[in-house]
Request: fold
Amino acid sequence: MHETKIPQSVQFYVKHALSVLREQEAALHGVQLARGNGHILALELQDREGKIKRAMERLDEFRGHAAKNGVDADAFLKECGGVPEFERFGYPKPVQMRGIAQGAYDVTACGIKLVGRPINVGEPDLLIGRENEVLSVRGPSGNVVYSVSPSVPWTRDTIVRSLNHEDVVHAVDGDVAEAYLGDCWIGGTEI
Reply:
């Protein structure tokens, strides 16, 4: 059992991503049964592509961290029921570890990538001066889906822990979201 080596929060993160993928697979399978493999299925896939891509990126991130920590990610994913295959709906075969460089961003369980950490010399640290601001998460229409005031000044670790909370993951639920400290944007799901 690989679960013993994997922290509970990571297990939740991975299982939530798998749940999102299974939801999308079930919906596409229903369209495929009702309408075949034509234009309607292609449109439905296009509508669901963002959620599929974000969930796949979460699994890629898990695989990267698992490899560094001596965990067999694919065995754990298989224990959780496996990763749905979307190629039968016309979705391209996933390429593992695509996207941004590992370590360039702090990634959270809700899918928001925080960019507050300076990467290159001369870039501003978005946290400085905002350590006591309200942390908020806004949905695709700009509505606040989660907010919290700090009990002690924010650090990157406390922000990540807050965004890893189950309430935030459910509030975002695989959709597009942006994180703010006060009125300063500090990250989002679309990075």
